[in-house]
């Protein structure tokens, strides 16, 4: 890469490049930054010249990161975040939340439960422009330039701050037709003889864990179907494809309606904390604090209820 001295103007190029990389489009980045498309293109081109590498593949239809761009992007995203945070601090602690808020959340959770609270937040804070992306992959909070990431389960990264805004539990269930045909297991160790639907985004998806008093039991499971989508797995379970362990917020409605039946209901499974995660720092921006506080208040009594 280029060894010329750092130029402060490079910071603007890094911010613009991060915006293009996140949106995959010069036009979308220009709209988000309030700049002309020609200005965005010129700043990225100058940054490429300064670094001595090509950062983006440009075609008539799309923009994609080059290998060098993939390496450079996380650092540029951190620069962009620092610039936004500095602007937030300069605006003063008493200022109303404002600016762009980038949120990442799991697909099924977002589709089912985030519409109402985000609409209420947007009405309360009209100066905040929310950009929410739904995906089930574990994302890089800092490198991805996310202000808030919603995660289900424990967060062990010391560089992140996690605040629980709701709680849920996992439940084991199956359709009445499946249980009529294959029988209902009466002990976790009997799960080995059943077709189990597996969620591929969980690292230990080859076993299910049950709580037995003060101890726990991890049971190896297998089955012909694996998916990364909780809604699809629920539909498969309703269609009689096998047993499923899923958060109550996904399957609770189907269980109450009788489309699914709880299996081994007397055995507890692990709590599933719903957490709002952001980068570790001296103090998060006002918009982040307001959004997380809003989620905590909204989900004080989770709308999906609790297993009966």
Short synopsis of the structure:
The protein is α/β, with parallel strands linked by helices and 308 residues long.
Uncertain spans: none
Percent of sequence in beta strands: 15-25%
SS elements, strand count: 14
List the domain count as a whole number.
3
Quaternary status: single chain
Euclidean distance between termini CA atoms? 61 Å
| Helix content, binned percent | 25-40%
Overall geometry comes to elongated
Would you list the SSEs in sequence order as H and E? Answer: HHHEEHEHHEEEHEEEEHEHEEEH
Backbone CA Rg: 23 Å
Q: Which CATH class of the largest domain is shown?
A: Alpha Beta
| Count of helical stretches | 10
How is the main sheet built?
A: 9 strands, mixed
CATH architecture group name of the largest domain: 3-Layer(aba) Sandwich
Which structural class best describes the helix and strand composition? alpha/beta
Mean pLDDT: 88
Which fold name corresponds to the CATH topology of the largest domain?
D-Maltodextrin-Binding Protein, domain 2
CATH superfamily of the largest domain: Periplasmic binding protein-like II
């Amino acid at each position: 890469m280029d060894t010329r001295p750092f130029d402060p103007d490079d910071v603007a190029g890094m911010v613009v490049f991060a915006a293009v990389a996140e949106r995959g489009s010069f036009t979308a980045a220009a709209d988000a930054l309030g700049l002309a498309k020609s200005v965005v293109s010129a700043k990225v081109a100058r940054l490429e010249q300064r670094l001595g590498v090509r950062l983006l593949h440009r075609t008539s239809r799309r923009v994609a990161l080059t290998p060098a761009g993939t390496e450079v992007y996380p650092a540029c995203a951190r620069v962009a975040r620092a610039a936004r945070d500095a602007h937030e601090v300069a605006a003063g602690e008493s200022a109303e939340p404002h600016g762009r808020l980038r949120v990442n959340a799991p697909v099924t959770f977002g589709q089912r439960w985030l519409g109402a609270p985000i609409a209420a937040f947007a009405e309360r804070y009209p100066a905040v422009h929310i950009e929410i992306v739904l995906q089930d992959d574990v994302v890089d909070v800092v490198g991805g330039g996310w202000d808030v990431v919603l995660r289900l389960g424990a967060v062990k990264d010391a560089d992140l701050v996690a605040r629980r805004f709701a709680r849920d539990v996992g439940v084991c269930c199956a359709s009445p037709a499946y249980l009529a045909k294959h029988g209902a297991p009466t002990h976790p160790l009997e799960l080995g003889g059943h077709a189990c639907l597996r969620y591929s985004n969980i690292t230990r998806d080859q076993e299910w864990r049950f709580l037995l008093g003060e101890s726990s039991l991890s049971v190896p499971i297998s089955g012909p179907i694996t998916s990364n989508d909780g809604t699809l797995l629920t539909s498969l379970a309703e269609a009689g494809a096998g047993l499923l362990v899923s958060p109550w917020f996904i399957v609770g409605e189907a269980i109450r309606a009788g489309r699914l039946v709880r299996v081994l209901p007397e055995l507890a499974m692990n709590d599933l904390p719903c957490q709002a995660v952001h980068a570790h720092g001296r103090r998060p921006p006002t918009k982040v604090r307001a959004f997380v506080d809003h989620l905590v208040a909204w989900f004080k009594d989770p709308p999906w209820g609790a297993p009966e």
